[in-house]
Predict the 3D structure of the following.
Amino acid sequence: MPTIAVRHHRWRLSALFYLAAQAQALWYVPFSKVLRTHGLEWLIPYAFAIAAIPALVSPMIGGALADEHLPPERLLGGLMVFVSLLLGAVYLAIQRQWGGAWVVGLLLLQQLAFAPTGGLIIAIIFASVRDPARDYGPIRVWATIGWMVAAPLAGFLPFAETSFLYGYVGAAMYMLVALFAFAMPATPPISSSGPRRWRDLLGHDTMELLRERDVRVVFIVAALFSMPLAAFYPFTPLFLTDGGETHATALMSIGQVTEVISAFILAPLLARFRLKHILTAGLVAGVARYVLYAVGAKGWVLLGVSLHGFAYMLYFVAVQLYLERRIAPRFRSRAQAFLNLMMAGIGNLVGALFCGWLRDWCGSPGGTRWTLYWSILAGCTAAVMGYFLLRFREPESPRVDLPDEGLPLNTLPGE
């Protein structure tokens, strides 16, 4: 492929990440404040938890279909159409005050369509670049930029942060993502034989990956690390608002600034340090984030927000790159989908319910005891880091024992 064509395709991949992340940020970040304003604050933990239920199933189906049957770009475009329409319906239910049951039910359907899209985008990127460790960070950073730009962009919209109109703007953006995905050149499926049984579509064969100790540990830690992380987006805006901040949504974009920085330094770090050191650094950032929240002073809290980008990139994105090199190409989409299941499914579901229950338990007549709340979550994150340090070992065998030939482990920079 000529150099100009390669660069053009790389920009298309970056634009796909940018648009998808911006669509998500426009409605997801202010969602808890919208629910509070419209008398649905009691629904916040359940709304964020319900989003995790489809992630237990649909990413695996989407990953299997992309690996074996459908070009991921076409599947992504079709799913985004449903995501757009159903998100509009969720906010219509909020606007018309149909009640919490309607909001939850429509959100469940919306998330059922949305859950496979993250893994599909990652699979498209990895199938399109020559060196994922070098090329993925500069492309992935555009998702962070899209998320960051959403906050100031929202400031120019002629309605308040608590307005249901943010949902309609997000729905329109998702439709734009769908059109963009349909316009991209199709990536052919790796195999046309395809899984024919429901157990294969649900990822039964992907369970074989868990026989490898190193792969099993990074998956388990991804789920465990996601549990305290589930408090970040729903409750940080409320925490900042209770502290007197009037632009909580904009302040949270600080975390995206550090994601941009992390995206550019990740490849050099992987080339210089061992994987375990990179993942540990991400976990340390996750612990420090909530410790600084617990301090409560504005400057320390904003420093804690800034650590979110390092925690996310140095663990979750580093694991995505690790799986791309560790797992056979035929399982590319399913491996990334299974990671999404552990993070957005199991981790987010348990985490959203636990973090919501914990906030209620930390309540008092004078408001939420935020210092206690964040201290407990910091302790939980520290326990996850301890498990990782005790259980993760550098892999001994050069290949994953799968039906397809895995890629050599020593091709991963730093290993």
